[in-house]
Specification:
This protein has helices at residues 9-17, 21-43, 46-62, 73-105, 108-111, 115-130, 134-144, 150-157, 161-194. With 196 residues, it is mainly α. 17% of the residues are buried.
């Protein structure tokens, strides 16, 4: 394995394009902090930013043969990372939209007439809602169950509209995380139970 003593980007890109892992590692360590900060500004999520950086560099490695021909690597890297971040945000929005649809239309919209799955999903949602802070739970229930607008909730509770929005966003994030973690655990337990 070759040691990289100084950072020479054109040389590194050429070496990476030829499959040099040490050069790729040097490239990654040089750009990773900057890129994580850049993506964090787009996503406002440390976890999503770190995941996106990993995805970007995985893509770079998978298409490494093309790297030698890139003249402005920083611009290329920023474009690729922005596109990955926006795709990740779109995916997150789809998941949140599906969750909201589930809450609006009931479990039938996602699970059909499967009563055990319906009960499980509702049970997980109830459990997630119960785990919220008192203020988040109150705002979440006023918005989702009583269908009050942000302005109506703000007036009713004597707080700002932005506070309502923030509490609701945190509540939805917490509920989504809770349900995903519980489902993942249940899947693991079921898989372990079915092992011979």
């Amino acid at each position: 394995m070759t040691v990289i003593s100084t950072y020479n980007e054109p040389e590194l890109l050429l070496r990476v394009s030829q499959g040099d892992e040490a050069a790729f590692s040097a490239l990654f360590h040089h750009w990773q902090p900057f890129l994580t900060t850049h993506i964090y500004r787009i996503t406002e999520s440390r976890e999503l930013a770190e995941e996106t950086v990993q995805d970007v560099f995985l893509k770079l490695w998978m298409t490494r043969e093309a790297l030698a021909g890139i003249g402005h690597f920083k611009a290329y890297l920023l474009t690729v990372s922005r596109n990955h971040a926006l795709n990740a945000l779109k995916s997150l929005m789809r998941r949140l939209h599906n969750q909201a649809r589930f809450e609006r239309e009931g479990a039938e919209s996602l699970f059909g007439d499967d009563e055990p799955a319906n009960k499980l999903q509702l049970s997980l949602l109830d459990e997630a809602i119960e785990s919220l802070s008192a203020r988040q739970k109150e705002i979440y229930l006023l918005h989702r169950h009583q269908r009050l607008s942000y302005a109506e909730i703000a007036e009713k509770l004597g707080i700002g509209r932005e506070s309502v929005k923030t509490h609701l966003q945190l509540a939805v994030r917490s509920i989504t995380k809770h349900v995903k973690q519980r489902l993942a655990l249940l899947i693991l337990l079921l898989e372990a139970w079915h092992l011979p």
